[in-house]
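Question: I have long wanted to understand how a fold can be written as tokens. Here is the record:
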Amino acid sequence: MLFDTLLDSLDRAQTEAVLAHELGHFRLGHIRNGMMVAVAAALAGLGLLAWLSNQPWFFTGLEVEGPSAVAAVILFVLVGPVFAFPLKPVASAWSRRREFAADRFAQRYSDAAGLSRALRKLYRDNAIALTADPVYARVYHSHPLPAERIARRDRGR
């Protein structure tokens, strides 16, 4: 997204490169695919919730007396993230892969050096650390580490 502050803080080449990156997400189908995955995950979650709400063990196993729709939703919201955790590294890796693809798209259709300069400026202006613990980043970060992203771009990959 381009906001007034972004337009005010970047030069023309940098702005074009950032816009090319965002257009890359659209052109490469990232937005459509992401929405389809989100809808499928929501439907799967609702289906699982419907099934669990009819399973007495779901309530007794979590020490709730008697099934109810309200209790099912509350338990599902509390327990769901624990069981979804193993998917987090997969989702993060998928997201980082899409970021690299959008970066490559931007390099093809705009000034690659402008994109690197824009990222450095955005990271500096937003006080984002250029490095992080690699294991933590692989599990939780939806975007590549800034240093890795800039290094790849500067190598033309």
